[in-house]
Amino acid sequence: MPEAQRDIWSEWLLKRRFGGDAEHMKAAMNFLYPVRDKVLHNANLGENETLLDVGCGDGLIAFGAFEKSNSVKVVFSDISQDLLDHVQHIAQESDMTHRSQFIRTSADDLSAIADKSVDIVTTRSVLIYVENKFKAFNEFHRVLKETGRLSIFEPINKFRHPGPENSFAGYDVTPVVEITRKIRTVYEKIQNPISDPMLDFDERDLLTFAERAGFKEIHLELDVEIKPNQLADWDRFLRAAPNPKVPTLEEAMQEVLTSAEQQAFIGHVRPLVEAKRGMIYSALAYLWAVK
Ligand SMILES: C[S@@+](CC[C@H](N)C(=O)[O-])C[C@H]1O[C@@H](n2cnc3c(N)ncnc32)[C@H](O)[C@@H]1O
Q: What is the pLDDT of residues 152-161, one digit of tens each?
């Protein structure tokens, strides 16, 4: 499909998250493969089971399941038809269609999937886009067979958000705080810092949703890190979009800054990025549960 016609989800997953940079893609996959493995480990995949991957994207978890089991059947589901077409194409190429099903559906309305029909539900970085997360947990519970398992990974973006005003993406922007405020308005116009689904929940909410949906045995692991950003790279900082809904920093600057302001901002931040003087603040939640 021509890139210009792809929806925001496929455009971001297949391109904008990497900022067109092969090194960034490699670094991202180095982070994602262990996450995938942990989600699948927590799912406790058995013989001849059916796994429903909700918000399958480009198939990270779903194709990982095929690698781990010769007998698993996978239901790929997503709201993006472009991504479903993409994974269907990969499944065909790798001769996996006989073990695959593709369903376009939203995480909070899985009505296309029958009650008690799957052994495992997985989802990675999808609930952050879903407004009614409790409804999604109810749906996960409904479609699972008795003793079926749920395995989830979600970043907890509420951690350190909103952060101090003189900090931007982990860099001290004290000398350019006014300019930074203008850049922030671009992002906050699209994602309200309090009510956006990506920012309005934490790990305890995930636990509560799972318990209220009826899961009997629930585990939660929170992986929190504060550390220097050793992988920082200026082009990536400028051109990789943080999520499907928002512009790159370069686009945001062009939208609201004069060229003098752009120069002042870049003049301050670029040396910090290049000297790797930024910090990473991350909180990642793994939740797994038995029906
Ligand atoms: C960050 S990507 C994660 C993709 C994949 N799970 C992975 O691990 O790489 C988010 C995915 O969620 C999908 N998505 C967004 N909103 C959704 C919703 N309400 N229901 C189901 N999928 C959704 C997007 O199309 C995208 O594929």
A: 999 999 998 8
Residues of the chain with CATH 3.40.50.150: 1-156+201-225+281-291
First-to-last alpha carbon distance for the chain, in angstroms, is 40
What does pTM read for this prediction?
0.95
Residue to mutate (ligand 1; options 39, 129, 134, 137; most atoms within 8 A of CB): 129
For residue 14, how far is its CA from the centre of ligand 1 (angstroms)? 12
Tokens 């490699």 sit at which residue? 26
Q: Which two tokens stand for residue 43?
A: 């799912």
Tens of pLDDT, residues 104-140? 999 999 999 999 999 999 999 999 999 999 999 999 9
Closest to 159 measured CA to CA, from 31, 286, 281? 281
> What pairs with residue 86 in β-bridges?
none
Domain boundaries 1-156+201-225+281-291, corresponding CATH code: 3.40.50.150
Q: How far is the CA of 291 from the centre of ligand 1 (A)?
A: 23
Residues 36-56: pLDDT tens digits? 999 999 999 999 999 999 999
Output the CA 23–ligand 1 centroid distance in Å.
23
- Going by alpha carbons, the residue nearest to atom 1 of ligand 1 is 125
